[in-house]
Amino acid sequence: MITCHLRYIVDPYQLPAFEAYGKLWIRLVEKFGGKHHGYFMPSEGVSNVALAMFSFPSLAAYEDYRKRSFDDPECQAAFAMNEKDRFILSYERSFFRPVFEDDQGTRRAP
């Protein structure tokens, strides 16, 4: 399993637009076989940083999702939302491998 962590710098005056965008991507990631863990909007503290995390069974499955998303009309519409309104100023994408507790109480990677 691979988990993608996105850190967005967003326009703090356009948080409702970014939130609507995020809600679309939750369903779209799952449409392509991923498991979305949600978007995390600014609350207290910094007002222009938002986060998102989602997982795919493998990096290859994630890459397939990315490739297919560029040809999908719903994904193209979501991309166009930001192209039009520019609520995402920048973003960083990182990949992580989750660790779970096994039956013996030790930590292991899936």
TrEMBL record:
Listed Pfam families: NIPSNAP
Start and end residues of each NIPSNAP domain: 7-99
InterPro entries: Dimeric_a/b-barrel, NIPSNAP
UniProt name for this protein: NIPSNAP protein
